[in-house]
Amino acid sequence: MNVGKEPRPAGSPKGYKPTAPERVADILKRLNQAYPDVTCALQHHDAWELLVATILSAQSTDVRVNIVTPELFKKYPTVQDFAALKPEQLQPDIRSTGFFRNKAKSVVGAAQKIVSEFGGKVPEKMDELLTLPGVARKTANVVLGTWFHQNEGVVVDTHVHRISRRLELTRNDDPKKIEQDLMTIIPRDRWTLFSHQIIWHGRKLCIARSPKCADCPLEDICHAADKTWSTVEIHKSAKP
Ligand code: SF4
Predict the structure, then answer these.
(1) What is the model's pLDDT at position 14?
(2) What is the C-alpha to C-alpha distance for residues 90 and 204, in angstroms, rounded to an integer?
(3) Cα–Cα distance list, 105 to 20, 54, 135, 136, 202 (Å)
(4) Which helix (H) or strand (E) element contains residue 25?
(5) 219 Cα nearest atom in ligand 1
(6) Of 5, 75, 109, 169, which has the most beta carbons under 10 Å away?
(7) d(Cα 162, Cα 238) in Å, to the nearest integer?
(8) Which one, of 159, 235, 149, lies nearest residue 189 by Cα?
(9) What does the alpha-carbon distance between residue 68 and residue 4 come to, in Å, rounded to a whole number?
(10) Residues lining ligand 1, judged by CB closer than 6 Å?
């Protein structure tokens, strides 16, 4: 999608282009200053642990997952241990993360495939990761970007979804399309870091309800419709 060819956002001045390279560069610069050293908040020691933690984090919080995983990996230290389980055996250990039946199926299924088809090692390629049960682009991007240091895509979780729309970096609602928009306007070497920075920003300031706009380093270049404080004009269409 080419955001630049879309009609200008409602309530914005003529000529305003929210995805103009200089505005995007300004956002990236400010994120770097505000969140210089951020990385994935899910605790892990290897690619397998990160993959499991990411699967468990769906519809849950990183804090909750970080409570569950240390015990889990003590009980089942290797991918082979998980592959030998029946999903029902795993359910009690991950119950508190929610959706535990599906997650147990995904984790055990992924372990079995990694053991049988990838020699017990988490694959390093997007197309191979996507063949694992329960792994979609978001999870694959977390593992590739955080553990393997490959910028294959942008992680579009609930924070990236909400903030990209508030900042008018996309007008789409579908995570796949949002990712495509972000990959078009953000330099590839920043994809992983941008994801982490926006996720931290979403936890700290740009929260879903009542964002803390008065404290936000992006305030004077953000026109979100649901800002709680603003020194610039509001754009009605810049909604999460
Ligand atoms: S100004 Fe408010 S809405 Fe805009 S990015 Fe900052 S916290 Fe979010």
Answers:
(1) 72
(2) 33
(3) 44, 14, 12, 15, 30
(4) helix 21-34
(5) 1
(6) 169
(7) 10
(8) 149
(9) 44
(10) 166-167, 205-206, 211-213, 216, 218-219, 222, 224, 227
Give the Å distance between the CA of 225 and the centre of ligand 1: 10
Measured between alpha carbons, how far is 83 from 234 in angstroms, rounded to an integer? 52
Joined tokens for residue 31: 């994120």
CB 96 within 8 A of CB 68: yes
* 211 CA closest ligand 1 atom index: 7
The pLDDT of residue 135 is above 90: yes
Residue 97 and residue 59: Cα distance in Å, rounded? 8
What are the catalytic residues? 138, 157
DSSP state of 96: G
Contact predicate 138/156, CB 8 Å: yes
pLDDT confidence bin for 41, thresholds 50/70/90: very high
Task: Tell me if 235 sits within 8 A of 168, measured CB to CB.
Answer: yes
What tokens were used for 33? 């200053």
